[in-house]
Structures are given as structure tokens and as C-alpha cells.
């Protein structure tokens, strides 16, 4: 959708169609945690390996700027997506977390990012930001906004449609070939075809091992009373997580709920994606327990919503965008859980690639990057499900002993590349 948006801005005369299996916004973009962040799934080292330290720095700078661009585009187009750039606060809640976050701050420093980009905050200041339990300090970066994802994606669909882009909903694509797509209802030819199917990619022919769908699940509380917010702070709608190994993420919504999510859901054999996987009672109950452990005041708060969806994970955890000039086929994805802002950067980059405009965007490390394919089954199922549970054991160890867990973390770092 961002690709269509920027192409139409560049050249209103272009004929563009969007073909969607369900409805615009059905995918992860309509139901994520609303962190419009500058985070990337791959680390500085992975980017520097192919594009040098300078390339890695440029990529991070481009992401920092993209957070603002999403806000600017929403404002420009009158999309009321509750954009609030309060930054993100990652809490250190045991001594192992302190070491991990301070090392991360040091890595940003080593790449030339200053206190204005990312900084360590001590325990007293951390309490002022978000008074979670067991606070020892934390890491703060201003490069993140909280948004309402459904409002952003539906608003954007309205904007691109009004600009003349045709949106074909309930039209599942069954094949993508050079300059051509086939759907359940017919086919279409185009000079360029952009595949932006993220966690659903393995359902397309020939792409089963390209991207793995890993489920991320979420809950939302009822709107919380003023007394809770007075006690906890959280005054600027900062997005929130802590430094545990299992990914968790939260935001204070514009209507004073906490929308809170986490990983830990099982991977399904042969990369299956089904609506019933969006809900998993065990994982939803674990997410709620985690939230209450961080904010015990919420023990009796009603959980009004539970949902989830697939994120798209490439084999090397390295997202990419590109266009094959020989076939006219472009792609964007592999964002893991960091796609809200990254899709915007991808859209602007594809706009440049499709219009043949060499720019600072088309020169970034992720452009044209190809990840190798995932292993065939049953290896994939065995490996991923073992990996999904590793962080849980690592976190339990760190909570119990207060020092970094080694062997599981080593395996995770070797898989994640950071
Ligand atoms: C629960 C959850 C929480 C998340 N939280 C965050 C967060 O806080 N911050 C962040 O940055 N990222 C987050 N993410 C990840 C982020 O939402 C995604 O990376 C991003 O939305 C991907 O956008 P996309 O447009 O590439 O794919 P999607 O939004 O998934 O869209 C893909 C679309 O393709 C359609 N499609 C699939 N196959 C076909 C086909 N054969 N034919 C036609 N159409 C097809 C689907 O129906 C879908 O609408 C989260 C994801 C989930 C699931």
C-alpha cells in the first residue's frame, strides 16, 4: 500500500492495482502492536558484513527518519491513526537485563549514535517513565511512535483508492509470474508486480520455504482508570518492553488501555497459516500473566480483546526489498516483528526502484538482499519449535539467578545474528 501511495505521488498518471486475498488491512498491518519503531530485525554487524559500517549506519538513520515520515504522511493525508511519538522504553528488570541493555547502548554509541538517539536511564528516571515492578533502569530511544494500526492501514487504503489505485479485495493470487499475476477470478498483466505478502508468503506456490510465519499474539485491557496512570506514569504513550529474551511489547492506547503482546506461540507444520492460530489460550494467558507481573495493579483488570497474527521471518532474520528488472517482480518483507515503519521505507524504496530513480534509498544494505531458504520439513518444524521455547528457559534462569544465561542465549544469538 505504501508502494502504491508513493508511486501515485510521484506520477499520478500511473495505473496501479492492489490485489488482496481478504480485505485491505486484513494482514499483520491491521492488527499489530502499533510500535512505529526504528527497529530492524538484523543487527549492525550483519549489515556491516556486506555494506560496511557506513552502510549499517545509513540504514539505521533511514529507519529513524522513517518514523517521522509515517507521522508526516498520516498528518498530510488526514489519517487519524493516534500517532504519538513518545519514544520507546525498554526496562531492565534484573541484573542480566542491565548488562544486555548497556551493551546495546554501547553498540549504538560505537556506530556514532548519540544520547539524543538512545541512552541508558538509571533506576530513578526509569520509575518516572513507567513504574514497572523490579525496575533497575532501562534504555530509552525517542525514535518510536505509538499508533493505532487498524486506523493507519484503513486510512491509507482510503487515501490510495481516492488517488485512483484500484483495490481488488477477496481476490487471492494463485501465481506470480514475470509481468503477470493469476487470481481465483482471472489474471492481470503489469510492467511491475510487487509481492508484499509477509507472513502469508509460504501459502504462494514456490515460496513455501522463503519466509516462515511465526505467530505473535496480543491482548488489550479495558480502559484503565486515572488512578492507575497516576501511579505508573507512562505519560507520553511511550511504547514499552523489557530486556527479557522472549519478545514482549506494549503500548498505552489513545483510549487508555494497554495493548500488550508477545511471542511464544508454536510454529505450525509446513508453515501453515490459519485463522484459528490467531488465538491460543495458553499463550494469551501467559501474556496476561506477564502483564500482571509487570503491573500487579492489573490483576483484576478485564481483558476485552485477544488476537494475533503471523509475522514473516526470513532464514537469516534480514528483511529485504528489491526489484528484479528481468522479470518485473519486486518484493518487500521479512520484517519479523518490525514492519510498521519498515513497510513505509520499503514502499518509498520500491517507488524509486520501479521509476528507475537511483537514490540514497536504493543504495541501502537491505536492497536486493536475498536470504537463503528455510530447511525442508520436518527439520523446520523441529528446529523452530525448539527455538521458540528457548527464550522462556533463558528468562526463567535470569530471573532466578540474576545473571546472564549462557547456552540458550548463545544459540539464540547465533540464530538471530545479534
Ligand atoms: C500481533 C502482531 C503484532 C505486531 N506488532 C508490531 C509492532 O508493534 N511494530 C512493528 O513494527 N511490527 C509489528 N508487527 C509486524 C508488522 O505488523 C508486519 O511486519 C507488517 O504489518 C507487514 O506488513 P505487510 O504489508 O508486508 O504484510 P501484511 O500486513 O501481513 O499484509 C499482507 C497481505 O497480503 C495478503 N495476502 C496474502 N497472501 C495473498 C494472496 N495469495 N493473494 C492476495 N493477497 C494475499 C494478506 O491477506 C494480507 O492482507 C506485528 C505483527 C503481528 C502479527
Distance between the termini: 31 Å
Structural class estimated from helices and strands: alpha+beta
Q: Under the CATH scheme, which architecture would be assigned? A: 2-Layer Sandwich
Order of helices and strands: HEEHEHEHEEHEEEEEEHEEEHEEEHHH
State the major sheet. Answer: 4 strands, mixed
Can you describe this structure?
It is a single chain. The chain has 418 residues and is α+β, with helices and mostly antiparallel strands. It has a single domain (2-416), classed as 2-Layer Sandwich (D-Amino Acid Oxidase, Chain A, domain 2), CATH 3.30.9. It is 35% helix and 20% strand. The protein is built from ten helices and 18 strands. It has helices at residues 2-10, 44-77, 95-110, 123-129, 149-162, 226-232, 281-294, 342-354, 379-401, 407-416; strands spanning 17-19, 35-37, 88-92, 119-121, 137-141, 144-146, 166-168, 173-177, 180-183, 187-189, 193-195, 212-221, 239-242, 248-252, 258-262, 303-313, 320-324, 329-333. The strands form six sheets. The chain has a four-stranded mixed β-sheet with strand order 4-5-3-13. A four-stranded antiparallel β-sheet has the order 14-15-12-16, covered by helices on one side. α1 crosses α8 (342-354). It is globular and about 60 Å long. It starts with a helix and ends with a helix. The mean pLDDT is 96. Bound molecules: flavin-adenine dinucleotide (FAD).
Amino acid at each position: 500500500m505504501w508502494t502504491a501511495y508513493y508511486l501515485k505521488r510521484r506520477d499520478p498518471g500511473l495505473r496501479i492495482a492492489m490485489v488482496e486475498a481478504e480485505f485491505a488491512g486484513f494482514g499483520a498491518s491491521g492488527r499489530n502492536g502499533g510500535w512505529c519503531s526504528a527497529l530492524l530485525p538484523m543487527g549492525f554487524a550483519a549489515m556491516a558484513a556486506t555494506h560496511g559500517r557506513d552502510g549499517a549506519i545509513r540504514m539505521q538513520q533511514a529507519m529513524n527518519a522513517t518514523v517521522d515520515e509515517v507521522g508526516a504522511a498520516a498528518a498530510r493525508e488526514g489519517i487519524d491513526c493516534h500517532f504519538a511519538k513518545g519514544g520507546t522504553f525498554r526496562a531492565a528488570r534484573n541484573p542480566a537485563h542491565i548488562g544486555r541493555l548497556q551493551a546495546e547502548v554501547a553498540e549504538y554509541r560505537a556506530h556514532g549514535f548519540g544520547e539524543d538517539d538512545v541512552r541508558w536511564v538509571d533506576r530513578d528516571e526509569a520509575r518516572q517513565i513507567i513504574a514497572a515492578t523490579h525496575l533497575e533502569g532501562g534504555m530509552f530511544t525517542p525514535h518510536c511512535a505509538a499508533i493505532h494500526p487498524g486506523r493507519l492501514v484503513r486510512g491509507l487504503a482510503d487515501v490510495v483508492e481516492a488517488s485512483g489505485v484500484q483495490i481488488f479485495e477477496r481476490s487471492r493470487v494463485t501465481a506470480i509470474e514475470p509481468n503477470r499475476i493469476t487470481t481465483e477470478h482471472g489474471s492481470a498483466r503489469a510492467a511491475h508486480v510487487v509481492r508484499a505478502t509477509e507472513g502469508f508468503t509460504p501459502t504462494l506456490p514456490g515460496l513455501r520455504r522463503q519466509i516462515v510465519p511465526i505467530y505473535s499474539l496480543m491482548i488489550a485491557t479495558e480502559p484503565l482508570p486515572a488512578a492507575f496512570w497516576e501511579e505508573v506514569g507512562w505519560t507520553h504513550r511511550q511504547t514499552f518492553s523489557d530486556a527479557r529474551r522472549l519478545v514482549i511489547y506494549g503500548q498505552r492506547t489513545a483510549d487508555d488501555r494497554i495493548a500488550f503482546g508477545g511471542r511464544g506461540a508454536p510454529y505450525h507444520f509446513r508453515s501453515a497459516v490459519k485463522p484459528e492460530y490467531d488465538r491460543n489460550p495458553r499463550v494469551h494467558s501467559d501474556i496476561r500473566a506477564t502483564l500482571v507481573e509487570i503491573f500487579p495493579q492489573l490483576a483484576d483488570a478485564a481483558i476485552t480483546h485477544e488476537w494475533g497474527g503471523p509475522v514473516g521471518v526470513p532464514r537469516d532474520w534480514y528483511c529485504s526489498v528489491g526489484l528484479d528488472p528481468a522479470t518485473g517482480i519486486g518484493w518487500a518483507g521479512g520484517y519479523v516483528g518490525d514492519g510498521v515503519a519498515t513497510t513505509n521505507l520499503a514502499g518509498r524504496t520500491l517507488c524509486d526502484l520501479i521509476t528507475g530513480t537511483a537514490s540514497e534509498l536504493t543504495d541501502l544494505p537491505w536492497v536486493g538482499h536475498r536470504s537463503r531458504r528455510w530447511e525442508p520439513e520436518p527439520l523446520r518444524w523441529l528446529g523452530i519449535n525448539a527455538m521458540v521455547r528457548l527464550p522462556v528457559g533463558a528468562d526463567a534462569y535470569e530471573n532466578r539467578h540474576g545473571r546472564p544465561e549462557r547456552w540458550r542465549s548463545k544459540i539464540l544469538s547465533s540464530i538471530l545474528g545479534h
